[in-house]
Design a protein that fits this description.
Blueprint: H1 35-50, H2 53-58, H3 65-70, H4 72-82, E1 92-97, E2 119-128, E3 131-142, E4 145-148, H5 156-160, E5 174-181, E6 193-199, H6 202-207, E7 208-218, E8 230-235, E9 249-255, E10 260-263, E11 274-284, E12 290-298, E13 301-307, E14 317-326, E15 332-344
Antiparallel strand pairs: 1-2, 2-3, 3-4, 5-6, 6-9, 7-8, 7-15, 9-11, 10-11, 11-12, 13-14, 14-15
Length: 345
């Protein structure tokens, strides 16, 4: 799974572990219900909600603790970000393996990891009836326990002058880059890992604020929308901020090797008993802002997924993906994920 950077660098938890057993087809096991992992998450949530630095540090792998002990300002930033919100009792866990060749956050600007994490974990919960938030953790197991792996602080000079890459033309507003990483063991019923680099011109970035939204319609027998649809905010406007160049420049990625199904899931559209939760995340280039979330599709079966690899912003909207799902009763839904202008500035 491709992993993005975070300004705090660790609203991410990194867990350190030895080799993780895999099924015969190479698929990693679901760790979310194992006793050791559940104990770690319980301790982490308790530390965050108590705003207790000592308890938080107890979740950090011993090889990473000296990093926080020797860099007080960096440690304070980690605590500030971690303690920013209170995690409610009702939350959802999504766990995805980190492959050996996946880049780690901030590695390109000098951060080093005492131990390499093996899983990315996301804790999702609702803020309001129409929006939710996700805390992204990088995790791995060591001697039977799961730990938070904290890297060293980024190199300040590299942060000020990151490696240069081709930039979008000044007037460009749309999908600048797209990539899809589909593993050999991923079946057709699943999806790969999608990543969109969205860049807006300085003019479009200046004249409106934007958010990423999913809009779901119930479909009629002819495949056309049967209702006005229901919308849900996936990424809030705060995280799509203009950088120093005056442009909104973000990477939005979503997907996993398999679907995650929830029964009686929170934030379920149309009151569906089941929903498919697809991990999603956004990282801003030049702003240090990032947010984890998820796409929530009504039903238990994913019928079709379509990624839009190219596109330009038009009338304040930029579609990124479409999904077709079906519930237990045979009702079919279409969900469109798009970047949308919220209001003119």
């Amino acid at each position: 799974m491709t992993i993005t950077r975070s300004s705090i660098l660790l609203s991410l938890i990194l867990l350190v572990a030895g080799p993780v057993a895999r099924a015969a087809d190479g698929t990693p096991p679901d760790i979310s219900n194992t006793p050791a992992f559940k104990a770690f998450i319980t301790d982490y949530v308790a530390a965050v909600n108590a705003k207790d630095a000592v308890k938080f540090l107890a979740c950090v792998h011993p090889e990473c603790r000296p990093i926080l002990a020797h860099d007080f300002a960096y440690a304070e930033e980690q605590y500030k970000v971690a303690f920013h919100r209170t995690i409610p009792a009702k939350y959802r866990l999504l766990a995805s393996p980190i492959d050996a060749d996946d880049p780690l956050p901030f590695a390109e600007v000098g951060s080093r990891y005492p131990i390499r994490p093996t899983y990315q974990v996301q804790i999702d919960y609702q803020l309001t009836p129409s929006s939710s938030v996700g805390i992204v953790l990088l995790v791995v197991q060591d001697q039977g326990k799961w730990w938070n792996v904290v890297p060293t602080a980024p190199d300040k000079e590299l942060l000020r002058h990151p490696p240069k890459e081709p930039t979008a033309p000044d007037a460009f507003s749309g999908i600048w880059k797209f990539s899809l990483n589909r593993k050999p063991q991923v079946t057709e019923a699943s999806w790969g890992r999608w990543q969109w680099r969205v860049v807006l011109s300085a003019e479009d970035s200046r004249k409106a604020t934007y958010q990423i939204v999913q809009t779901t319609h119930k479909l009629a027998a002819d495949g056309k929308p049967a209702d006005a649809g229901k919308s849900r905010v996936v990424i809030e406007p705060h995280y799509l901020a203009a950088n120093k160049a005056g442009r909104i420049d973000v990477t939005f990625y979503s997907g996993d090797d398999k679907a995650n199904f929830d029964t009686g899931a929170m934030d379920s559209l149309y009151g569906a008993a089941h929903q498919i939760a697809i991990p999603a995340m956004l990282s801003g280039h030049g702003t240090g802002r990032s947010m984890g979330s998820s796409l929530n599709l009504p039903g238990h079966k994913l019928l079709k997924s379509e990624s839009l690899e190219q596109g330009k912003l038009a009338d304040g909207s930029l579609p990124l993906a479409r999904f077709t799902s079906q519930d237990d009763n045979g009702t079919t839904y279409e969900t469109t994920v798009s970047l949308q202008a919220v209001k003119a500035k």
